[in-house]
Amino acid sequence: PEDLEPGVIRKLDEVVVNRIAAGEIIQRPANALKELLENSLDAQSTHIQVNVKNGGLKLLQIQDNGTGIRREDLEIVCERFTTSKLARFEDLAQIATFGFRGEALASISHVAHLSIQTKTAKEKCGYKATYADGKLHGQPKPCAGNQGTIISIEDLFYNMPQRRQALRSPAEEFQRLSEVLARYAVHNPRVGFTLRKQGEAQPALRTPVASSRTENIRIIYGAAIAKELLEFSHRDEMFKFQAECLLTQVNYSAKKSQMLLFINQRLVESPALKTAVDAVYATYLPRGHHPFVYMSLTLPPQNLDVNVHPTKHEVHFLYQDEIVERLKEQVEARLLGSNSTRTFYKQL
Ligand code: ADP
Ligand code: MG
């Protein structure tokens, strides 16, 4: 029809643009926690404490003993694309830190009330600053404090009512927070992690400093899993990867599937690898039952693309199919090696 009018195209307001982008990166409290844990690890912390109120929706606070943030950087630290980690695009191929694009704190400041308290080794006192929509609010105030950083996030999604409504269950959000923390704790046993619900005397989760992966699995996931763990590493020259694995033998199984996967220290998901590993176990475990699997893969950084997903949950890597196949073979061989007698016995 002739009377159809095209829409008028206008540029969105900057605050709207930032809030939309932030909502993609920070989908729920657990995404925020992942970003904050990675920042604390990037800052070489050995102690990381997380405090939570209402599943992280009311308060998500993380305290570390890392490098701290310089006073002069507090001005811009929450702006989008401000980072101390990446300088040139080419450096992304060699990136050794979790962060690289300076979006986490900015995003959080667009969807929550954010404050940072921090002290570096050089400065005599600490500073506390509050942020809104990427900008420093007022001036940083001098304060006492130990070296390190406390990031406090309050009223997450206060300005996104639909999102808030979708996240109705603080218990579920807390569960997801503790899953993220648990995984990082298993992968980083040198660092001590604590997770607390505000107001509760006992921490919900705590691992000691200078622990081990097996010990942390025992503390967090229980002795039934820890005592069935089979440990192996595998180095592959052809497809250029190294794998460290801790997985349960076929005597153990659970209704809940647990796969902790790290690629170049990053917590990621790989449906292809999970399916492959599950297929190996399916031969041995009762129907609908699953193993506990921890895998840490190390690839040459130039074979890995970390910049494919806003939450960085997904990564792309070279030789993916081949690597998955090799790992599958490894798991199969190791399970057989350690369990041939028991499986035989069971089949009688
Ligand atoms: P990125 O991690 O991609 O650089 P972020 O928005 O997560 O972006 O953080 C911005 C910057 O703030 C970091 O590059 C780092 O310099 C600093 N920073 C954030 N959290 C911490 C922390 N816990 N300890 C020390 N510095 C931090
Ligand atoms: Mg970061």
Automatic annotation (TrEMBL):
Gene Ontology CC terms: MutLalpha complex
GO biological process: mismatch repair
Keywords, in A-Z order: DNA damage, DNA repair, Nucleus
Record keyword Chaperone present: no
Annotated localization: Nucleus
Domain DNA mismatch repair protein S5 span(s) in chain numbering: 217-336
GO MF annotation terms: ATP binding; ATP hydrolysis activity; ATP-dependent DNA damage sensor activity; mismatched DNA binding
Family statement: Belongs to the DNA mismatch repair MutL/HexB family.
Name under which the protein is recorded: DNA mismatch repair protein Mlh1
Species: Drosophila kikkawai (Fruit fly)
Parent-protein start and end of this portion: 2 to 349 of 666
